[in-house]
Amino acid sequence: MTSRDFDSRPAPAVDPLGPLRDPEEPGCDVFLTGTVFLDIIFTGLDSAPVRGTESWARGMGSSPGGVANMATALSRLGLRTSLAAAFGDDHYGEYCWDALEQGEGIDLSMSRTVPGWHSPVTVSMAYEGERTMVSHGHEAPPPAGPGPFPQCPPRARAAVASLAPGRGEEWIAEAARRGSRIFADVGWDESGRWDLAALADLDHCEAFLPNAGEAMRYTRTDCPRKAARALAEKVPIAVVTMGAEGSYAVDGHTGETAHVPGIAVEALDPTGAGDVYVAGFLTGTLAGWPLADRLAFAGLTAALSVQEFGGSLSAPGWPEVAHWWGAAPQALRGRYAFLDELIPPAATPAARRRAVPTIGFRHSA
Question: Fewer CB within 10 Å, N side or C side of the chain?
């Protein structure tokens, strides 16, 4: 894959890697793979649904979900993003493909449409600052070729992996061997063992970004900072996210630490905020920003995302960051002063796709 593959992508307001680009670089900045869901999000619920009753939501939105959250967040921040995923041979799959490829400029040359396979679906209900999700889907049939991807995987600056206990992914090791910097998060360990040794691909990772609950369980510690320091003995950079308290990171190579508080916002829907955070941190890391600036930027992008519906189409780009910066509280202007060198003076909010209550309207010719 070359940079020509991305000629049709929407032009970003800022290219955070602009000063680093050269003709010999990989055409892809970030590669990722996973499951794309069609997300249906209900917001404005006063409480959890009660058994035997009908609840009405004041808001609803539909958007691509799952791994699409991360892919969209990366692309909107100006990174050339390649996604390998299976798409259903149905209207949901067609909508998700179009939203990602045409709407967001994400390269889907390594993705495939599976005839007769329906798209996985998640219904997410947001209330009291949290969310409850119900999902349905079946694993996609394996591709006919010898490997999971046509190019297994492409040469890229970075790759994003979701680690799971007891499961190794050959593509992660191969990506690392090809020079990709691996950024990883992790899900809840349903087994309850919380054994770091069971995360087989952790050795290939440059950065590991669990939330506080996950980090403390994996390290048998009683506070997020202790957990981050323990994880930094296993990976070069450990980042622990702490919700409204922000995030804390340790650079295992230099011993540098950083803590940046969260930004208080009125949250509409927290779906995908963790994915947006990882995208923001990855962007700053590839661009070579200081550790604290990376945490600040990641936290800002996540805070902006929860003010919109959905996990993917809520992700902010540079125009949204610029709009926030133009009206940022005085108390935050020192911490986020690095944005002055990144945001064009004339940047304005973009007309982006946002989640709406349906996947599309029929229009007569």
Answer: C
